[in-house]
Every structure is written in C-alpha cells, then in structure tokens.
Amino acid sequence: MGNWIINHGLTSFILVVWMGINIFLFVWFYFFYDLGPQFFYTRHLLGSALAWARAPAAVLNFNCLLILLPVCRNLLSLIRGSFMCCGRTMRKQLDKNLSFHKLVAYMIGLMTAVHMIAHLLNVEWYNNSRQGVYDKLSTALSNLEDTDSTTYLNPIRKTDIDPQQIPTYFVFTTIAGLTGVIITLALILIITSSMEVIRRSYFEVFWYTHHLFIIFFAGLVFHGAGRIVRSQQTTDPVHNVTFCKDRSDEWGRIPECPIPQFAGGFPQTWMWVIGPMILYLCERLVRFIRYMQRVTYRKIVMRPSKVLELQLVKSGFKMEVGQYVFLNCPAISQLEWHPFTMTSAPEEDFFSVHIRSAGDWTDKLIDIVQKLPEGAQGPKMGVDGPFGTASEDVFDYEVSMLVGAGIGVTPFASILKSIWYKFKESNPKLRTRKIYFYWLCRETHAFEWFADLLQVLEKEMEERGMGDFLTYKLYLTGWDQSTAHHVRVRFDQDTDAVTGLKQKTHYGRPIWDKEFEQVRKENPT
What we know:
The chain is elongated. The chain has a four-stranded parallel sheet with strand order 9-10-11-12, with no helix packed on it. Strands 3-4-7 form a three-stranded antiparallel sheet, with helices on one face. A three-stranded antiparallel sheet has the order 6-5-8. It has 19 helices and twelve strands. The chain is of the alpha/beta class. Keywords: Heme, Iron, Membrane, Metal-binding, Oxidoreductase, Transmembrane, Transmembrane helix.
C-alpha cells in the first residue's frame, strides 16, 4: 500500500478531485433546475427532462474548459520548469497529460449524450404542449404572446406547418438546434477517429478529424445564444404561482395574477472556454514561431532495418536526458507533427533522433532522405520542444536499474551517453557508480544502432579499466528456427551471435525476483 501511494497517490487524488467537481456540478445544477421556483412553469411543460438537460450542460462547461489544457505542450513545459523546486512526483503528473485529455473527452462524450437525449425529449414535449395535447395550463403557457420576442415560455412559435415536422424544423432553424447538431457531429467524428485501431493504422485520419475541434468550440460558444430554456421573471405585481397555476383563464384580468413573463438565461459557456481558447491560440503561435526557426542537419545516417538517424542543430536548443521533440516536415505534410525521443546527450553540441519505419509519414521521410545526393542537407524540418520530464534523477543514485522494452529503449541511449560523458568529465553531480541495464525486445534488427552504442561504451569502459560500471542484459523474446540455428553454430564465439556484443543474449523474459535478489546481493548497502 505504501508503494502504491508513492507511485499513484497523487494521480488518484487529482482524479478524485476532478470527479468530485463533476459530481458536485451535476447535483447542484440538477436541483437548481428541479427545485427552483423560477422554473416551476418550465418544469410543468418539460418535467424532469429540464434538469437532466441542464445538469450535464454544467459538467460539459467544466470539461470543455479542461480539454485543451493537456494538449498545450509548451504551457506544460513552462509549468514543469516552475515545478523544478517541487518533487518529481508533482512534475511527473504533467507527463500523463494525454491520459487526462482522454478521460475528459470520455466525460464530454457521456454528458453530450445525456444532454442531447434530454433536449430531444424537451423539443417533443414543447411541440405537444403547443398542439394542446396536454392539460389546460400547458396550453395556456404555450399560447402566451410573444410581444417583444422575450416574454414567451415555449420556444416553438411556428404552428402553420405539419405538427410532425415542427421538431425537425425547430432543430434545424434555431441557433441552439443547429449548433447542437454541428457540435454533436464534430464530436462523433473526433471520438471515433481517436480509437487506437484508427490512430495507429490511419494516423492522418485521426490528425485531420481532430482539427474539427475548431468547429466544435465555435459551435459551443454560440450554442447558448438561442436561450431556449426560459425562467419566470419577477413582475409588479408579483405573479403568485401557487395561487395562479389553476386560474390560467384569469391571467391579466385579476391583480393577483398578472400575465407571467419569461426570459432565456444569459449564455455562459463562452465564459468557461474563452481562457483555454486564448491559451491554445498562444500555444499554436509559439509552435509556429518555433517552426520558422532554422534547423540544420549535422549528419544523416541510414541505419540497418530502415532506421534513420538524424543529427540536428538548432540555435538556443537545450535538452535533458529522456526528453522528446515533435518534428514536422512540410515536404510531407504542413500540419502533421510527430513525437520522437532524443537519443543524444545534453553534453553533445547537437540533438539526434532515431526514426524507425512505422507508417506513412516515416516511410515518406526515409524515402526522401534516401534520394538525397551525398552530403546534401535534408528536407526543411520544424522542431518543437523539448518536452517531457527529464530523467535526470537517475544521476542521484549510486546504483541505478534501467529497464527498456522494444522501441522504449530510445531514452536510455540518451541516459547512457550522458552518464558516460559525466563520468569522463568527473562531474561532481554524478553519484552513479553502477548501472544495471535490461533490454527486452522481440527482434533486434530494428535496434542495431543501439547495439552499436553499447559496443562503443563497452570498448571505452574496458580501455579505462571500468568494465564493472555497466552490467547489461539483453533478452530476446521472439525468435525463429533460423535464429536458433545461427546461435547454435556460433555459440562458442567470444561475441554474441545476435548483437556482436561480449555480453551474450538471453532468450525469453527475465525472472525479476532473481534479478532483484542478485542486485541486492551485489549492493548490500
């Protein structure tokens, strides 16, 4: 339990607070509309669907305020920098920004469904009241004159067409109805294209449909301007609901029952979302400025198994270990930005990324680079970043265990290089005396560049008489008959048959209890 609290306590606390605010807003506004005396006559027409429409709207306002903040990556970097004095746990929450973004999106989807269903019922009941289907009071309320386009209660004013067509006419000719349809369609497209199967296989579909958020927010700002939910206004003399509800024939004829007056509520959604919209606009402006900054190629290397290494130089660029950048190549797409973990160390005068062929964008980039003449500069590249919480706390421990799996091994290239630079320079901030590195992957071909890095480190450490500084274990979790035969034939060689390293590759997965026990025995203090 103690470990769980250390690892997940703050995340859980933030989620509980977020869910608590959602529940509070829903309950508060539900009872506000379900019990408020100003909505007595409105409730008579709509019943509990009024509260069921308005309570989700309040929750939607709150979550639409939040949805853009987790994707303002430059804002998160600024906040992360100001949290340097705080604990890593606090800073690490910012790395869960996309998980929180998805969670908020699920809440928006759920509340939109409830809000929409309730309002569809409301339109139907408004129409029935207008046609005189219900009781005398409902008919009287629906027939109230619309003297200044403000005093009516029932927003359905048109009666000269087929009653069956009125709800459809109302939905597609009013501000609230039309913007509601547009918002819902945009949201459906955004959510469905965000499913993992589409995002991984058709990234462009996900990327471009996600930009429908512009239409979503524009519709959201104007949605409340229709003011279809109306409340009773105070008149002089006062219209006493308790006394007058059963005397609709006498409204305006006796002083105790003046004709009730109604007005729509002031639109509030824009007040919730205007701040995040301005912040996101600033975010896009910063990205554009960074995109315009010149990036030069120091070196372009085509590694085996279609892995492209780009060594880039950008004025004023500062990175830390374990961080990532977003790359944009206008020759492929003006809008698409893709994240790549940096494999260089902060001590180097350039930053590098290793790009594996894994989709349309990467395939096109590799194709462009392969066609370049010898020594030529690559295509124009926009760089945004660096982002992510740096892994510099690795340097705070005498013994560090690093575990990388598959493509997740890339940040460790940066960490291992940086540790080596610090060691060579006798950096006083480096406390590390021993590193255990575990690398698990299904096949090593796509990561031959990483094996080359380990080979260089292995050689340099032997030359300095520090062979014990780095203990690494490679685990191959997938192999075929040809690999097994290749290993059998070369089993008695000094170097590994798969990687060419002195450390032999293990097959299968690590037995972690044994590994932890071994590390504990070797480092008793």
